[in-house]
Amino acid sequence: MKSIRDALIIIVFGAAVGLIANTLRNAIGAHGLAWDTPWPDNRKKVELEIPPSYQPGDSLLSVEDAYTLYLRDSTLFLDAREPIEFVEAHIKGAINFPFEQWDLYWESVKPALNPNYEIVAYCGGLDCELSLFMARELKRLGYEKAYIFFGGWQKWLDAKLPVELKIDE
Amino acid sequence: MNSQLLQNRAILFLSRLILGGLFIYASYDKALNPLAFAQIIHHYRFVPPWLVNLSAVALPWIELLAGALLIVGLKVRPSNLVLGGLLVFYIYLLSVTAARGININCGCFSTSSTVKSILIADIIRDVAFLLLSIHIFIFYGARARRRKRPEPRRNPIR
After folding, report:
1. DSSP 8-state class, residue B138
2. Containing H/E element for A91?
């Protein structure tokens, strides 16, 4: 019994040291883990929805995969919706690139794109395929790591992942 | 292999050194990169979201502490219990993950996303490490118990 009690003490003490070390790292900006880093609940397997216009070669992302890319600093999220929707709320850190106004926005968006890094295109929900068309066009222009987060905004909201609201800005 | 050999002090120390050293080594990268480790935990699709950050921050330090105690010979049985318990859990988790067909980096020694695991090989490896833990559990305890056993009293000669 004494061994079990001591084992529990080791677990609690080790965990406490970990929590303190992480808090200190966060305090000095040394790449600790932010306590509020959210994680979508992925314990139940969810089938990936296939867009009606899907073609072989389209790189689709689940919300989990999109979030994995999101955690990399280098990944850029492109919001293909209209500015009025984007301003209301969008994925935190995303850039607005309304697909239907490509020519108007392309020159301002282009400097932010890097062909070596992942680009994730998303739009409203499962009824919106603009992200699909945008990723295909980007691939055609040489951005090989352009991904489609189909149903993106709605899935992101459902998973309670980081967003920017109008009130935040 | 006879039990005399397994009870040998040097053999027991070797088991402690290997098991403890292994966990210290395993904890190093995970303690340094908690975000990457949290992602690996999340990829197992096993842990509820609220437990991911806590596990990622706490687990490496528990492994480090228990591994260090096992090597230096302080609280050997409790620290061995912790590491043995962790190994049983890891074997179960890897088996469930393999059975569900999830292909991930096990995160056992590295948090790098480029490292790919063969989960069956990871399970076999962990079973081998568990044998070390069982060895320590049985024979280190036996030595300690024997040391504590009082000398039998002799009948006084009348």
Report:
1. I
2. strand A89-91
Q: What is the Cβ-side half-sphere exposure of residue B91, based on CA atoms within 13 angstroms?
A: 15
Q: Which of A11, A22, A42 sits opposite B82 (nearest CB)?
A: A11
Amino acid at the residue A157: L
The number of beta carbons lying within 10 Å of the beta carbon of residue A62 is 19
- Note whether ipTM > 0.90 here: no
| Rounded-to-integer distance, Cα B125 and Cα A50, Å | 39
What's the pLDDT tens digit per position in B57-98? Answer: 999 999 999 999 999 999 999 999 999 999 999 999 999 999
Can you tell me the distance from the alpha carbon of A150 to that of B70, in angstroms, rounded to the nearest whole number? 50
- Residue A66 main-chain phi, psi, to 5 deg: -60, -40
Q: How far apart are CA A20 and CA B61, in angstroms?
A: 11
pTM: 0.77
**What is the pLDDT confidence band of residue A78, given thresholds at 50, 70 and 90?**
very high
A21 CB neighbours in chain B (<8 A) are: 31, 57, 61
Q: Is B88 on the interface with A (CB under 8 A)?
A: no
Q: How far is CA B91 from each of CA A118, B54, B96, B127, B132, rounded to the nearest angstrom?
A: 34, 21, 9, 7, 14
Pairing of strands A163-165, A89-91: antiparallel
B146: its two tokens:
């024997």
Residue with tokens 């975000």: B35
CA dist B74 and B69 (Å) reads: 5
Nearest to B66 among A14, A32, A39 (CB): A14
> Which structure tokens are listed for A108?
């301002």
